[in-house]
What we know:
Elements: H1 3-11, E1 17-21, H2 25-28, H3 37-44, E2 50-53, H4 55-60, E3 72-76, E4 78-80, E5 94-96, H5 100-106, E6 110-117, H6 122-142, E7 146-152, H7 164-175, E8 181-185, H8 190-199, E9 204-207, H9 215-227, E10 232-235, H10 237-240, H11 245-257, H12 262-265, H13 267-273
Parallel strand pairs: 1-2, 1-10, 2-3, 3-6, 6-7, 7-8, 8-9, 9-10
Antiparallel strand pairs: 4-5
Amino acid sequence: MTGLDIRLKRLFSRGKVFVVALDHGLVMGPLKGIENVVSVVKKIGNYPDALQMTPAMLRVVEENFYSRNSPMLIARLDTANVWRDARKYDQGYYSMVYEVKEAVRAGADAVVTYLVVGYGDDRIEGYNLEQLAKARREAEDYGLPFIIEPLFVRKEISDSVKDTTAVKYVSRLASEIGPDLLKVDYSGDKNGFASVVEASFSPILIRGGPKTSNDLDFLKMLRDAMDSGASGITVGRNLWQSQDPNLMAQAISKVVHESVPPEEAVKVIQKVNS
Length: 274
């Protein structure tokens, strides 16, 4: 058994995977809910299987990960200006910010990178692909799981394109690079997303995406994605921008790890809000 095998088995030790993404500051700045990262990490507790952060952020919160039951750490290596509000991109950029060895030095158990398709100069997309291939080889050398987050974007919309055809295309493109896991947009359609899973040959974790209108709809979306073949979920704003991140983490864990129906899991939150 290799180090890669050990880390993947630890990540999937509870069957499905629950990851909390906290690395938005590298692309969006200090969003509401993660202004103080130490505080939000303490609120979440040990319900997630892993937390996704930059190596710099890992150093800030490292004292929260000294126990055996601590979540695993997934390090973000790169950035792009797709989601920036202060000034929208003209040509768009993609940049690798950290090397895999820096993530290892910070204590990471896995690394994640973007594959941004459909914006800016085509040469930027080519550069993105070259950097991912290089990072994948480095991650293999260190025995770290390598995760690609493929996104299809258009300049005229504020977030990634989530229709089935676009998601299927970028997921298959990312699969061909050789990642251990994919982090993919949920297309919103169970049958359509099942076809995305079928066309990809890396296990898929779905992206939680922008804040939804209510907690129950969000939990139902997570259940639908896993019923369609997703191997787990990654959550950001819908958790740390919720009224009580600790209770939301509990509710998500019930859906992901215990297969509790969303209508039951949401009661954990509603009892306090009522």
